[in-house]
Amino acid sequence: MNNTPTAHNNAKLGDIAETILLPGDPLRAKFIAENFLEDVVEYNTVRGMFGYTGYYKGRRISVQGSGMGIPSIGIYSYELIHFYGVKNLIRIGSAGAINENLNLHDIVIGMGACTDSNFASQYNLPGTYAPIASYKLLQKAVNIANDKGTTVTVGNILSSDVFYSDTGLGNLEKWKKMGVLCVEMEAAGLYMNAARAGVNALTILTISDCPFTGEECSSHDRQVAFTKMMEIALELA
Fold it and tell me: What pTM value is reported for the model?
């Protein structure tokens, strides 16, 4: 049975490459397609979550917005894996620094993703699941960064369901004590969907704000200025 197109995606089976970049912001997907890919075809416009397939250095690759939060990336990644045959899913997103050594525009690769989400409850596991990246993609991304002379920090990140917390920075202080590097909102759900399906997933993040100091990038920077992260991800195709 062909489940495509879906309620969330205009694409037909075969329109999407086996490797896809997943920025949360659909305008970042549009920027990548227009500035890095050749022979681009737009395959999705549903809900403004733009999706494109093209070629980067001769390799076929797709890029699509995934929205904000685990529920959103949970839907898009599940469909991409199970209905469109995607094998490598690379989230490229923004994050808030928790570790005091991280600054605006620094790049973090999420080896593991802690979370306050209840997403894993659906699997009825007899314990606490630890969502992690695919080592194959992680190792390759670090090697690419090294070859480019780009400094990256690899470690544990936090995927939070809450953007405006009633506790202020109190909860982030607790995660900081456990060595967590930064906070975002999607990686844990992506890692769990990928693990359950036996495919590869990785999260590459650029620090867009520092909650403890109040520093932050503009919304325009979040769309177009995180090119080092984009280039590492594109090389993974």
Answer: 0.96
Provide DSSP, 163-197: SS-TTTTHHHHHHHHTT--EEESSHHHHHHHHHHH
DSSP annotation string for 103-170 = -TT-EEEEEEEEES--GGGGG--SS----B--HHHHHHHHHHHHHHT--EEEEEEEE-S-SS-TTTTH
Dihedral class, residue 48 (left if φ above 0, else alpha if ψ from -120 to 50, else beta): left
Assign 132 a pLDDT band (cuts: 50, 70, 90): very high
Binding site as annotated, residues for phosphate: 24, 28, 47, 91-94
Q: Give the tens place of pLDDT for each residue, 183-233.
A: 999 999 999 999 999 999 999 999 999 999 999 998 777 767 789 999 999
Q: Which CATH class is domain 19-235?
A: alpha beta
Please tell me which residue in 15, 25, 106, 209 is annotated as part of the active site: 209
Q: How far apart are CA 99 and CA 78, in angstroms?
A: 31
For 39-61, the pLDDT digits (tens) are 999 999 999 999 999 999 999 99
Q: How far is CA 21 from the centre of its chain?
A: 7
Interatomic CA distance for residues 206 and 89, integer angstroms: 17
Asked about 209 being catalytic, the answer comes back as yes
